[in-house]
Amino acid sequence: MWIFYCPDITDDMELPQEEAGHCIRVLRLKEGDMIRLADGKGCFHDARITSVTGKRCFVHIERSERQPALWNGRVHIAVAPTKLMDRNEWFVEKAVEIGTDAVTFIATEHGERDTIKLERIEKIAVSAMKQSKKAMLPEIEGMVRFRDFISRPFDGDRFIAHCDEGERIHLADALVPGRNAMVMIGPEGDFSPAEIRMALDAGFRPVSLGDSRLRTETAALASVMMMNLNARIR
Fold first, then answer.
1. Has residue 232 got a pLDDT over 90?
2. Which are the contacts of 187, defined by CB distance < 8 A and separation ≥ 6?
């Protein structure tokens, strides 16, 4: 069944313009056909198309259900965006497909980008949510200053992955099954020594992602994968 994103659900409703266009013009669905709506808040809603008028599509909700949790705890990735937007977009798409609760873009001392086109990123996240058959849309946030981000409260384990000298354990060994986890990934030039010290003073634990040198988006995606696998419901 085709999945469409509708954040505001009522028993009888009109599909958002973009979703209606895809439903009518691309898929050529018609009155009487069944579709599935994801509200981005964790619920699926099975709906029947009741009317198609020009570019508008109206539906009636026939059944609603909350999608069972796909993993335990909260998965949060914070990353300094790369200079090329397509690499940031690729990362968000894959992170949502794998499964994360939140993505935060952070502004760092060695960062390559000061702004993020959040509207486009959010559209990519919605598409990835539908593609991977999820009903929950992750929180997408950007840009947040490094100092402000590390000062925020977080009920769980916080990690900073960096390449500086010092004792670090592998992220896979540091994660505790079922516990909320947050990993912070720096830019291509890594976090500055001052930022690393600030993060450690704020309670972040230093971790490694292995011996290979990874691009920012690769490191961030590897972190999401490890956190998600660690949190998977068994």
1. no
2. 80, 81, 82, 108, 110, 111, 112, 216
